[in-house]
Structures are given as C-alpha cells and as structure tokens.
Design brief:
Helix 3 runs parallel beside helix 4. The chain has 213 residues and is an alpha/beta fold. The protein is 32% helix and 21% strand. The chain is globular, with a radius of gyration of 16 Å. It has a single domain, classed as Alpha-Beta Barrel (TIM Barrel), CATH 3.20.20.
C-alpha cells in the first residue's frame, strides 16, 4: 500500500477531510516563508481538534537549528520532515538524527536537475523525501520531481523509505505512480484550490487513483 501524506494543513476542515479519506500523515509547515505556514501553537490547536486515529503528524521545517528542532520535538509531533541544502554541514544533520531519532527523521535535500542524492545522508534517516526543485523556495512549488531518477534511487537503496513530492494531483498522479513507484506520496499544491486551502474533489480523485494502481 502506498503511504499518503497531505501536507500544508492550515484548517481543521481540511485535516478532517484528509482523515476521512484515510491518509497516513498530516503535514504542518512551520517555515515562516511558506504561504502554508502555521505556528507551533496553531498546529497544536489543529491537532487537538482532531481524532487522528492511525494518522501521524509531520512537522515540516527548513534547516532548523538543534534548539529549534528540540522545541518542535517537545510539541509532540510524530515525524520531522527537514528540508536543507544537500551541501549542508553534516554535523547539523547528525544533530537532527540524534534529537528525534533516525526512524522519525525525514530528510528532504533540495536537489536541482544536475544534483544526485548524497548517499552519506542515508545513515541519518530511514526516510528520504524528494521534491520538485525551485531556486527560490523549499517545497510547495507545484513543480514535479524527476520520477525516473527517483525510481532508480529507490531500487538502488531499498532499505530507505522513499517519499515523492512535487505538484502531485489528479492530473499527474497515475503517471507519477507508474514511473516512480514510490513507497509514499506527499500531496500539497496539486490538491489545492489556493495555497493552504485543500480541494476535496482533487484530493479524493487523487487518492482513488492511487488505490487502483
């Protein structure tokens, strides 16, 4: 079964809609430059208003300091999706792994078309997320990733759980699933009416397509 994460949750009704469709993860973006930003107190309020059931919460940050990640951990998230420059100091990535644990850390290196995933980061996290590249923003750009390259990396490193992000929605999810065969998908901009506002029609159609593949 393909794991499904709905990211960029800003409203309780969108979160409940995703839960009603049996998604596995809800993502809360704590990066202030994102149009889908929510503060830690707001994310707590949203989570407390819901019956998550089997679904898990994912905190999304960009290159946090160890102290920032400690604060996020203390807020009770289940997983931690951290976006970063692939050339970042490995001591910081090691700190992230130590703070939250390898099994709860999702690493999301910011890769352009010419970049390859640095294999040395595999020792720090069990999950790698690949997103579409933008020179201006970390994630949520609506740009698709290189699905064929993703599939190749997944086949070469089966010990890693591979999550695919980047503009996924009803218009391209079938092709993405066929070409990338991801362990999990991260749905955000491709299932929205506007940034932070999810579309039930788009989300339901996307999930139904995934379930039939």
């Amino acid at each position: 079964m393909t794991l499904i994460k709905v990211c960029g949750i800003t409203r309780s009704q969108d979160a409940q809609m995703a839960l009603d469709l049996n998604v596995d993860f809800l993502g809360f973006i704590l990066h202030e430059q994102s149009p889908r930003f929510v503060s830690i107190p707001t994310s707590l309020s949203l989570r407390n208003s819901l019956e998550l059931g089997k679904a898990k919460s994912v905190a999304v940050q960009v290159n946090p300091t160890p102290k920032e990640l400690e604060n996020t951990k203390n807020a009770g998230f289940d997983f931690f999706q951290l976006h970063f420059n692939p050339f970042a100091d490995r001591r910081r990535i090691s700190d992230w792994s130590r703070i939250v644990g390898k099994d709860r850390l999702w690493l999301a290196p910011r890769l352009n078309a010419e970049s390859t995933i640095p294999e040395d980061i595999f020792s720090f996290a069990n999950t790698i997320l690949v997103d579409g590249y933008s020179k201006d923003r970390y994630g949520g750009t609506g740009k698709v990733a290189d699905w064929s390259s993703f599939n190749q990396c997944q086949k070469m490193n089966p010990e890693i759980r591979w999550m695919l992000a980047g503009g996924l929605g009803p218009q391209n999810i079938r092709q993405a699933m066929q070409q990338a065969s991801p362990a999990g998908v991260d749905l955000n901009s491709g299932i929205e009416e506007s940034p932070g506002i999810k579309s039930r029609i788009k989300l339901k159609e996307t999930i139904q397509t995934i379930s039939k593949i």
